[in-house]
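User: My instructor asked us to take a sequence, write out its structure as tokens, and then describe one feature of it. I'm not sure where to start. Here is the sequence I was given:
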Amino acid sequence: MPFIYPEEARHYALPMLIVMLGLWALIKIQQDWQQGQINPLVWVGWAACQTIGLYTHYFCLMATVGQIGALLLWQWWQHPAKPRPTKMFWVPVAFVLSTIGFTYRPWVATLISHVTRPETDWMKPFEPNILTLLAPLWQLPIGWLSMIAAFPVEGQPIWLVIPTAILIIGFGGWIIQQADRGLRLLWLDASSRDGVMILAVFLGIVLIEFFSIIFVLGKDISQVPRYNFIYYPAICLLLGAGLDRQARQTKLAITATPLFF
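Assistant: Let's start with the prediction itself. The structure tokens for your sequence are:
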């Protein structure tokens, strides 16, 4: 989990749940489209998730942009043999966009005023220099590692902190390696490739938004690991899918290996 203290988990549980439901609806939309179907209830539920999320936490705006962007890019990426975007696709997309815009319009002015308030200046470095400029490049990966394993090292003696940090990095690297192998196998499978792509594109768009906030707006949100909650569900889905596929591949290889006594 991208949280250090229990109160953080309680505070971000609802917006993270909304992001999870939005991703589930997004995958369902993708699966229905592949079968030439449209489920109005899923589209309405997806639009509701985006609207509720925007009123729950401002960062859900990044998730909304990421999900819509992932869906549109997936459609344009489709193989020539598959159906291209048609009226059947654009009508529900227009419905979702108009619903989000209409329901969130009353709050846009408040959003802009909150973004420019001086209370957010604590995310700016007090003494800007090359180190503070590059800090996000290692602060973000540290936050990603904490999603996999986070042992209590705060306030511990150095002889305990160093081996614990090495253990976390080693375990995290192994998990990522195994998940990467599994995701490569899923990518080779036509039945799972589209789902992997949508989640990966969503994750990529949100990370681009993160870096834009950090380096363009000058607000270093990478120093707050809990803000990673916005793409934590996608990380879990990709890691879980990759690890499961790799585990099945390993089990299959073991079963196929002859035993000699």
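For the description part of your assignment, you could build on this observation: The radius of gyration is 21 Å. Try explaining in your own words what that tells you about the chain.
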